[in-house]
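Hi P.,

Sorry for the delay on this. The queue was packed all week, but I finally got your sequence through. Input first:
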Amino acid sequence: MKHVLVRRRQCLHGLAAAAFAAANLPAARAQEKITRIVVAFPPGGPVDFVARAISEQLGRELGRQVIVENRAGANGGIAAEYVSRSAPDAQTLWLTSVGAVAINPSLYEKLIYDPVKDLTPVSLVVRNVEVLVVGANAPYNTGAEFVTAAKQRKQPMTLASSGTGSVPHLALELLSDAAGTPLLHVPYKGAAPAITDVIAGHVDGFFGDIPGLLPFIASGKLKPIGIAAPKRHPLLPQVKTFPEMGLAGVDSDNWYALFAAKGTSAAMVDAMNQALRRTLANEGVRNRLMASGAEPAPSSPAELAALMARDSAKWSAVVRAKKIKPD
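Then the structure:
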């Protein structure tokens, strides 16, 4: 009889444990949920770097795992479509540069996504202003000297870009208008080959994101001569801005921002926004981003939407005026 009672107690304990586990299964599953940051570029690039720089701390702030997924292709379309079709719960996020949301709609006749209709702004993440660089042995040390030389030459100065319609391409068009002199656009398939040819002296200059150019500037292979922004960059304090040199309107910021699927509630967006703000305020994350040249710049969803609208109008005007068509 005693053995029977023991077995009964064991059975009851087992049933109680099973009932407790079942009751707490939703909570356990909630804890197992994963937040995804979807990047529209292959691993190793600047957007991917920023995603991985914030993912671990963002996970701590959210109390869940945050992973980075790379879904490259279709000029950002594959990643954008994936996020737009995800659950509207702010747990699948698109980290993108300005081009995919503020340039592509005017550059391409057809896109498989609509940045306004399909996505919800969460927050700006970083700013990446453009800097004009030339070869180390180039005879000009400032953007003003570069423009003077361009006006004196019979043939236009050549400026490389990472591709037709890219931010570096549009930045050189802004400089051409501000200087009142033509500049010959030389498109490359990416920044790496463009930088190589500037270093070799095959092309006169290149506009690029500061994070991607800092190693070449630090090694003395490239010379920075102008910042395309209203203020100087903290890592290049000696380099004047183009407005400082009397070249107004040369302002090009390849910012990165987070978006969620359309229909995500304001409460969910706000919770993610606040978690990102705490992440970017973390000293380790901030220092890592700043050391790369990217400037942490969290915003409200409304501020991001307004920035997107302003840059869409700005860049679409340049695309139309210059009759720029994708390759």
